[in-house]
């Protein structure tokens, strides 16, 4: 159950097909990722201890107007135990070790109560 519904979102800079970004994310997080079409957009999900991640395709198959410029990675946490700089840095390190480039990130619906380096 996701009581807190906090999400750490990353805009990925990888200019590759969705299947390629899934392979890279799966290798970085050491998980298996499968995807399904959700209202015209491919979304892959994986459940890990304490959080789950979603990779959202930039292409919307319903309309070119709805397409995005970048793929997005969402990390949904299960509790406020993960709502901190240490967890954010852990995810950033996984992305760095997996050579997954990202442009920006944001916590939603609220920013962290402290500044991270």
Task: Put the structure in a nutshell.
The protein has 117 residues and is α+β, with helices and mostly antiparallel strands. The protein has two helices and six strands; from the N terminus they run E-H-E-E-E-E-H-E.
SSE topology:
Layout: E1 7-12, H1 18-29, E2 34-38, E3 41-48, E4 51-60, E5 71-77, H2 85-97, E6 102-108
Antiparallel strand pairs: 1-5, 1-6, 2-3, 3-4, 4-5
Notes on the protein architecture:
The protein is an alpha+beta fold and 117 residues long. Helix content is 21%, strand content 37%. The chain has two helices and six strands. It has helices at 18-29, 85-97; strands at residues 7-12, 34-38, 41-48, 51-60, 71-77, 102-108. The protein has a six-stranded antiparallel β-sheet with strand order 2-3-4-5-1-6, covered by helices on one side. The longest helix is centred in the C-terminal third of the chain and has 13 residues, at 85-97. The chain starts with 6 loop residues before the first strand and ends in a 9-residue tail after the last strand.
Point out poorly predicted stretches.
none
Order of helices and strands: EHEEEEHE
Mean pLDDT: 90
Per DSSP, the total helix count is: 2
Helical fraction: 10-25%
Radius of gyration: 14 Å
């Amino acid at each position: 159950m996701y009581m807190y519904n906090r999400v750490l979102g990353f805009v990925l800079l990888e200019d590759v097909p969705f299947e390629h970004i899934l392979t890279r994310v799966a290798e970085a997080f050491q998980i298996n990722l499968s995807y399904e079409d959700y209202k015209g957009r491919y979304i892959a999900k994986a459940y890990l201890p304490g959080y789950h991640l979603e990779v959202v395709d930039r292409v919307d198959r319903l309309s070119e107007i709805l397409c995005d410029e970048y793929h997005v990675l969402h990390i949904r946490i299960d509790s406020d135990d993960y709502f901190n700089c240490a967890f954010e840095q852990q995810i950033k390190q996984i992305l760095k070790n997996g050579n997954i480039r990202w442009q920006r990130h944001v916590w939603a619906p609220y920013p962290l109560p402290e500044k991270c380096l």
